[in-house]
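Mods, move this if it's the wrong board.
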Amino acid sequence: MNSELNSELNPPAEFISDALISDEVPEADAIVSFADFGLSPDILRSLAEQGYVHPTPIQAAAIPVLLQGRDVMGAAQTGTGKTAGFALPIIQLLLAHASNSASPARHPVRALILTPTRELADQVADNVKTYCKHTPLRSVVVFGGVDMAPQTAALRAGVEIVIATPGRLLDHVQQKTINLSQVQMLVMDEADRMLDMGFLPDLQRIINLLPKNRQSLMFSATFSQEIKKLAATFLRNPLTIEVARSNATAENVTQILYQVQEEEKRDAVSFIIRERHLKQVIVFSNTKIGASRLAVHLVKTGVKASAIHGDKSQSERMAALESFKRGEIEVLVATDVAARGLDIAELPCVINYDLPYNAEDYVHRIGRTGRAGAKGDAISLFSEKDERLLVDIEKLIKQKIVRLHLAGFVAEKFVAAPREARASRGDSSRGDSSRGDSSRGDSSRSESAGKPAARAVPRSFAPKVDPWFFQPYQPTASKLPEVEKPAATSSTKTVKRAALLGGLPKA
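Not the wrong board. Structure tokens:
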């Protein structure tokens, strides 16, 4: 292990961890296959059905060590197969306790995999289910946003492997529907994201519920100093496995940067999608409302788009994701809640509508493309206000991102069509006068060229003015007739008055 990590963990001399660092990716025929690890025939059968023969570098480095029972900190770029790197050894080690009995007591929770997001939990659960489908082992995924009843029923029926988000797992602990006293393996997947999302108190509570004698694993694409401090609290003599440089981006992902004005970003996204003929792309936004507005804008320009973010229900998010995977949706606009856990086969491109506030999130975002050795493009848009974020990203990945000019892009191109439609309805003057920015159509701008600012009112529409209103004041010659007063009458009426106790009043 490097000196920096040793100083952070500061273990006793006899427990100083080793480091296995590989800067080069081995050749596929290098030699190693999954059969060389001594995995069960049932596991190898599942891998063969998926077409997996040779492990990736992170898998080749991690699987033998995990099978020995060592604690591990694993770091590799997103999309290099970290999930199989820890899932396969877990399944292999738990086969010794596998049982075909229907009794829940024969299927206690023996492995716990924690993930920061629901999407990542669902993805890991799908992989685990695939790898152990020919074994008696059972697995279940639990996360928030959905009904607890099906999860509760599965837990009470007995499962060996639980994939969970921290919050929902603690809900089940409180409801006493899960028992963690027999957990032998703990995995924290994307632990840095869990810290960013404020899960540290929940993680500490969960760790306190687990047996002290267990195997603990931590896998992530990035390892910050905070993560290393957390590792010191629950990992024992960990082996650090790094494939390539820490916080590095995959070499098969082409990174491109376009500088545009902030108000032009929406049109720029539409332009890029149309010019590149993209039929499957993920666009990342920093805010929920920004993601929703961008998705609406893309739909108005004729692009099939949908948004997923924290304000969407889990059923809505899963439905949008499934539609995207089936090709029914061309563009998926997402916040960073989806940056971890989206595994789309052969995704050709991702677009950063906003540069992320956290530089590590840039690595995870662009890791959605170029997975499993495929090539991909990562396009980022930035304006003047994003300079500081760009500096942080380039400092983290230790490279300059290529800056290119977005040739042929004119922001007003995409707003001209609706204004021409309004002009055909006869209300183009209202549409042009409602805004004073640079997004006016070319036709309206050419008409006004060379004319004074205040246009003359057509004569047919000039109001008729009575000249009497402009004459000076003149007093009227005749006086108003006097109102005659009624003549006084000599006779007066006698007014009846009531007598008081003191007598009548004097006249």
